[in-house]
Write a structure and sequence with these properties.
This is Hexosyltransferase. It is found in: Golgi apparatus, Golgi stack membrane. 32% of the residues lie in helices and 18% in strands. The protein has 30 helices and 34 strands. The radius of gyration is 39 Å and the shape is globular.
Length: 964
């Protein structure tokens, strides 16, 4: 059915209104397309003469007088109506276009001339990704539709942009946002806005661009309005004014507020809604960041002393009343431009026809925030007060950072939800105590009969949390140690961080702690200034004078901070004075969140496949073995049904191997072990490897990269031991690769990686001969190493020298290598030599630097390569402490011919392995006089060359390293 149109006269001097018929003095303009129940007369059949405008009331009064004075006019009018209806029915029947012909006239490939390029004018209406276009060619006898891109068609209603509650006849929406963009930015900036904050608005949004713009292929649902007669030239004055006119004509009755925005601005919908609901939209309001031009432009913008304009970048808000006064005069404002600045001219137009300036509120500088850093704006740290307080952030020139900012704002929402959850749990605990219930039994409390307080029980996905733990009020005494060993020590915070139990007692504040302090201070200042406006004062943060910090893994982080603040009173007697405030704070944890993943992909609740149905939906042929096996495994409630899935399902519909728990556990781990001498240590490694891997039928292989040693001649013994191992386990690949060169670990690992063929089983585990491990380590390697996505650098536990740790027992070897505490060893956080990765990922980052010779540095180089190429290759680095991967103590021999950086690293590692802080303290107490005598002698004598200690100093192996 062809559409009908509402018609009206327009000014003859407006060049942007296309006239139907090509040459008449009158004209037609498409205002709105609606479904017509009956055919209509083609406008091609009429020539409307030019009309001289007169007041509507006068015209109506004149017509009534004429009809009363001349009764014959009634008969003529009635006859004309009857004749007109008859002619209309005949012409409408002849010009009716079937639906299939209409579809043929509107191809979906997007080809054809742009709107307005044909011999006749085209009136186009586009909205929310759908446009309406109709052309009238010379001699045409029926409606035709010009070629349109995909997503544009006659059957769509442009009002589908509106929220359901804001359509005609419904409740008005809160805000309609018009985003000014350009055709070249549609796939990037516009798409980013639509993907982020554009879909969270309490209202509607549309993107306005040139008349030839079409939705990009990557976002066919983009709500695009191609403004008729507008291009993407700069300055965008015409685009801005036409956009406001369009918004008023189409959505003026459906929204309370209208926001003019650029495509490089980020809007926080929740804060925008809070602001707009606090302002009366029935009054003329023009809200934005007020400006009068920069220093060079001051006095050149034709502004009166009391006039200003709203800067367009951070966004401009119009109430419905303001837009109703300005929109009818858009053409006048376009014809009377004084400058090339779009926002200046818009402010002048609002001042003239709405009678209001842009709001002078200084607070708008922070609410509608503009960063003057240009292209680098909002690319760094986002934890700033300005970012947290702002409703809009401008400019975000790099569209990818729109997603980054959006994710950060999502994190803030999550933190707010956590805080609300904690408050509710505390209220629940308080009420349970008042009602005489035990908070520890909150899961069993019922609000009414068969109405539990917590419907989801512990272990369920929707469980709301343990109120007994989360509902405790803030306190530094939540955790009560049972003995002296469980007392949590405090770290002292000043210019540096001081820790009694750390191997480096004085050190710089770590980035994680510094970030936590920033969060705590920001929250504290927000609470202090929550009612600053009512009290006429504001308190600003300066610095932390000193503080204390401790971490409780069960409850959270505790802080005692002494803050230097500045008190500013701006109401009444003004004053500015420095003040100090002592704050006791706690960042409470909200419980553990556990997420099950397989090779990095989250495993969610999935319904079991129906093996009795074929792909076409028909009954599949009988498969008693597979179907019964799966059904039995599922119905019996087995937790580890992954073992049965590969045999049942084989491969998925895309031809890819199904990822399940069993496939992860069956990954083959290729051990690569560089070795030079040290046969006795190698015997221990082979014993552990055979006991934990081979006897348990683990999918493993071992490649020993053997170098000659100057300290011992054990090549034959090493080969014999490996040959014996191979004879006992012929099903495993166990090999020795001899290298006739001086030892270089980087070269050894490259040679070992070359022994493994590229393919599914190229998981490499670079290990040292001093390591002991068990099967739990193998499981962590398989789970944490993901091809093309993640390399695993485990943090190993390194033993102290047993002669120092077990001095009282007289032991020289640790009785239990897996005894993990601060007295037996330390976590080697800065060691990267033990690594698990895929060969393809090793090649992707460039492999090892084989020019590095001797001890160390090759592992740090590889780690840096992974970190540097993380963005390009999308292979992340995962680090975690592995309590089942232990580095057994041995004396570190540092070659004096090493490079200075390698020699320094080697000596540092040797000193770290001699003992911990507690052993040093015990030695000082036991041998205090000897230590003091040595210190006095060292201060009085010249510095020793090479950093070595004087012979004969120190009283034990545990004291030689630290004392020297």
């Amino acid at each position: 059915m062809p559409p009908s149109f509402d018609l009206r006269d327009e000014d003859d001097d407006d060049p942007d209104f296309h006239r139907a018929g090509g040459g008449g003095a009158g004209g037609l303009r498409v205002l709105r397309s609606v479904s017509a129940p009956a055919p209509v007369i083609s406008p091609q059949a009429f020539r409307l003469p030019a009309l001289r405008r007169r007041p509507a009331a006068a015209a109506s009064r004149s017509a009534s007088v004429m009809l009363l004075r001349r009764p014959r006019r009634w008969l003529q009018l009635c006859a004309g109506l009857v004749l007109g209806l008859a002619v209309g029915m005949l012409v409408g029947t002849a010009t009716r276009m079937p639906d299939d012909i209409g579809r043929q006239c509107s191809p979906s490939d997007g080809t054809g001339p742009p709107p307005g390029s044909g011999p006749a004018g085209v009136a186009q209406f586009a909205g929310s990704g759908f446009g309406f276009g109709f052309g009238y060619g010379p001699g045409s006898e029926r409606w035709t539709s010009p070629p349109s891109p995909p997503g544009y068609g006659d059957e769509h209603d442009p009002l589908h942009l509106l929220e359901p509650g804001s359509k005609p006849g419904g409740r008005r929406g809160l805000v309609m946002v018009g985003v000014m963009t350009a055709d070249k930015y549609l796939p990037t900036r516009a798409a980013a806005v639509w993907d982020t904050w554009g879909k969270e608005l309490p209202g509607g949004i549309a993107f306005f661009s040139a008349s030839y713009s079409r939705p990009p292929p990557n976002r066919p649902d983009l709500p695009l309005v191609a403004l008729k007669g507008v291009d993407d030239s700069y300055p965008p004055q015409k685009k801005s004014f036409r956009m406001l006119e369009y918004l008023w004509e189409q959505y003026g009755d459906h929204f309370e507020w209208f926001l003019r925005a650029d495509d490089d601005v980020y809007v926080r919908p929740d804060k925008l809604e809070k602001l707009l609901r606090s302002v009366d939209s029935s009054k003329p309001q023009f809200i934005g960041q007020a400006g009068r031009g920069n220093q060079e432009e001051f006095g050149l913008l034709s502004l009166e002393f009391d006039e200003n304009f709203c800067m367009g970048g951070p966004g401009v808000l119009f109430s419905r009343e303001t837009l109703s006064r300005v929109a009818p005069h858009v053409k006048h404002c376009l014809k009377n431009l004084y400058t090339t600045h779009e926002d200046v001219e818009l402010g002048r137009c609002v001042q003239r026809f709405a009678g209001i300036p842009c709001t002078w509120s200084y607070e708008m500088q922070n609410i509608l925030y503009h960063n003057s850093s240009g292209n680098e704006a909002f690319t760094g740290n986002l934890k700033h007060r300005e970012v947290h307080r702002a409703i809009t952030l401008h400019p975000i020139k790099q569209y990818r950072h729109l997603y980054r900012v959006h994710n950060y704002m999502g994190q803030l929402k999550i933190q707010d939800s956590w805080q609300q959850s904690l408050s509710l749990h505390r209220d629940i605990v308080a009420m349970l105590e008042l009602l005489g219930h035990n908070p520890a039994r909150a899961d069993d409390v019922q609000l009414a009969k068969n109405v539990p307080l917590f419907p989801a029980k512990r272990g369920d996905r929707d469980y709301l949390g343990d109120s007994a733990l989360l509902g405790k009020p803030p306190s530094l005494n939540k955790y009560r140690p049972r003995c002296e060993a469980e007392v949590l020590p405090w770290d002292f915070i000043s210019r540096s961080l001081f820790s009694a139990g750390h191997s480096n007692p004085r050190r710089r504040i770590e980035s994680a702690l510094r970030e936590g302090l920033d969060d705590v201070v920001r929250e504290v200042m927000d609470m202090i200034n929550a009612f600053s406006k009512q009290r006429g004062r504001v308190i600003e943060y300066r610095e932390i004078l000193y503080g204390y910090h401790r971490l409780n893994p069960l409850y959270g982080a505790d802080y005692i901070l002494d803050l230097l603040l500045v008190y500013k009173k701006y109401r009444g007697k003004k004053m500015t004075v420095p003040v100090r405030r002592h704050a006791y704070l706690q960042q409470q944890f909200t419980g553990l969140e556990i997420r099950e993943t397989i090779d990095g992909e989250e495993v969610g609740p999935q319904a079991p496949p129906d093996l009795t149905q074929s792909a076409e939906g028909d009954d599949a042929p009988g498969q008693p073995g597979a179907g019964a096996s799966f059904r039995e495994a599922f119905e019996n409630g087995l937790l580890r049904i992954g073992d049965a899935l590969p045999a049942i399902l084989g491969r998925d519909g895309r031809g890819e191997e199904v990822r399940d728990e069993a496939s992860v556990r069956h990954k083959t781990i290729n051990f690569v072990l560089p070795l030079a001498g040290r046969f006795s240590t190698f015997q221990r490694f082979v014993s552990v490897f055979e006991e934990e891997c081979l006897k348990n039928a683990e999918q493993v292989s071992l490649f020993v990269i053997l170098f000659p040693s100057e300290q011992e001649v054990s090549v034959n013994e090493t080969v014999s031991l490996m040959s014996s191992l191979q004879r006992r386990w012929p099903q495993h690949r166990l090999a020795v690769v001899p290298v006739f060169d001086s030892f270089a670990r980087a070269l050894a690992l490259e040679i070992g990686a070359a022994q493994v063929k590229d393919g599914e089983d190229d998981l490499l585990f670079f290990v040292d001969v001093d390591m002991v491990f068990n099967r739990a380590t193998l499981e962590r390697i398989r789970v944490n190493t993901i091809r093309g996505r993640q390399a695993y650098f485990p943090i190993v536990f390194s033993e102290f020298e047993p002669a120092t740790v077990y001095r009282d027992q007289g032991l020289t070897v640790a009785p239990n290598h897996f005894l993990i505490n601060q007295d037996t060893g330390y976590w080697r956080q800065y060691g990267f030599g033990i690594v698990s990765l895929y060969k393809s990922d090793l090649r992707r980052v460039g492999g090892f630097d084989t020019s590095i010779r001797g001890w160390g540095k090759e592992d740090v180089d590889l780690y840096d390569k992974f970190v540097a190429s993380m963005a390009a290759n999308n292979v992340s680095v995962f680090r975690a402490a592995d309590p089942n991967l232990v580095h057994v103590f041995h004396i570190v021999d540092c070659d004096p011919d090493l490079e200075p950086s390698q020699l320094k690293m080697c000596k540092g590692t040797r000193a770290d392995t001699l003992g911990g802080v507690s052993q040093l303290a015990q030695g000082i107490f036991a041998e205090g006089k000897a230590i003091l005598d040595f210190a006095k002698k060292r201060r009085s004598s010249a510095p020793l060359t090479g950093g070595a200690a004087a012979p004969g100093t120190g009283t034990g192996a545990g004291l030689k390293g630290p004392a020297s």
